[in-house]
Design brief:
The complex is a heterodimer of chains A (114) and B (115). Helices cover 0% and strands 51% of the residues of chain A. In chain A, a hairpin with an 8-residue loop joins β10 and β11. Chain A is globular, with a radius of gyration of 13 Å. The mean pLDDT of chain A is 91. Chain B has 115 residues and is an all-beta fold. In chain B, strands 2, 4, 5, 6, 9, 10 and 11 form a seven-stranded mixed β-sheet that branches. In chain B, strands 1-3-8-7 form a four-stranded antiparallel β-sheet, with no helix packed on it. Chain B starts with a strand and ends with a strand. The model of chain B has no long low-confidence stretch (mean pLDDT 91). The chains are: A mainly beta (114), B mainly beta (115).
Chain lengths: 114, 115
């Protein structure tokens, strides 16, 4: 079975600084990896995904993530944080090409301070 | 193009009552997924439906919970005889006819509070 861990409940950064939200995964095969963002009282929005190919994936709103197979990680990054990036971020992993086996992490709350 | 619509947004029930949560997928989407989000936890998959069919209900509790997605109308998640532990946010997501892995479109959720 696949699982994903987000080791930090909370990440605080100053506006303009780079941000990293960490994610590690555990699967018995080749993973499909995803990042979603949830703004207050809203549903999750898809940010980016890794399926195959280039380990550096670029997504919405200037976010990117790097797939590292040796470290089983898929950290979310952004070079320069905005206050509007403050939200809850979820990492997810799937083993198949189906959505119903996607497993989400517990989420990391990102706060960007002016 | 309207997104995934869920209602009610907030629902309060007393223990033992029934809760019905509705989800209308995005136009053109025929796949619906229900997730539950408990406080301070990630989303837990509950059930995956296509029109008139339950494809995967492996995440659904065996008792009191049921889901349907009729030919006409929204998908319904039904919780009978609610208990306090059912208090959570329930999210519906949809995807197009040919699922694209990971690109789920989520509704804003229905927050159930059981008194």
């Amino acid at each position: 079975a696949q699982s994903v861990a987000q080791p930090e409940d909370q990440v605080n950064v100053a506006e303009g600084n780079p941000l990293t939200v960490k994610c590690t995964y555990s699967v018995s095969g080749n993973p499909y990896l995803f990042w979603y963002v949830q703004y207050p009282n809203r549903g999750l929005q898809f940010l980016l995904k890794y399926i195959t190919g280039d380990n550096l994936v670029k997504g919405s709103y200037g976010f990117e993530a790097e797939f590292n197979k040796s470290q089983t990680s898929f950290h979310l990054k952004k070079p320069s944080a905005l206050v509007s990036d403050s939200a809850l971020y979820f990492c997810a992993v799937s083993l198949t090409y189906n959505n119903n086996d996607m497993r989400f992490g517990a989420g990391t709350r990102l706060t960007v301070k002016p | 193009n309207a997104g995934v619509m869920q209602n009610p947004r907030h629902l309060v029930r007393r223990r033992g009552q029934e809760a019905r949560l509705r989800c209308s997928p995005m136009k053109g989407h025929s796949h619906v997924y229900w997730y539950r989000q408990l406080p301070e936890e990630g989303l837990k998959f509950m059930v995956y439906l296509q029109k008139e069919n339950i494809i995967d209900e492996s995440g659904m509790p065996k008792e009191r919970f049921s889901a349907e997605f009729p030919k006409e109308g929204p998908s319904i998640l039904r919780i009978q005889q609610v208990v306090r532990g059912d208090s959570a946010a329930y999210f519906c997501a949809s995807s197009p006819r040919t699922p694209t892995p990971g690109e789920l479109f989520f509704g804003e959720g229905s927050r159930l509070t059981v008194l």
